[in-house]
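> Could you send the Cyclic nucleotide-binding domain-containing protein prediction when you get a chance?

Sure thing. Input:
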Amino acid sequence: MAEKALFSEQEFELIKSLSKEINYKKGTKVLQEGKICKQTIFVCKGLLRLYRLDANGKEYTLKFAHENRWMSDRESYINASPSFFNIDAIESSNVLIWQKENFAFLLGEIPAFKMLMENLSSKSLIWDK
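Output:
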């Protein structure tokens, strides 16, 4: 079940104007370990994976984000610190991306946007069946 929010036309245009739509091909590296995560990603279609590599190169998947889910390395994003993780598109994916300052502005400016983000973030913590 997709979450919905009602935005005024002006709010919707502001949200849209501060986002960037990107189509990632399958296999695209969205975030590389050691880089700072400066974006919040909303998956419109497709599938992203957050994972880390151990010293021997073995992969450990921590999170998947599919349609209507958020993806980022929250620690790197919040602290502006180098990421310990990688994010890859494991399917061709259509996403919306907001730079940190634009996303923070929207959360403060549009209460319905903040509520939608919080609801979708909470749902991403629940195992899908």
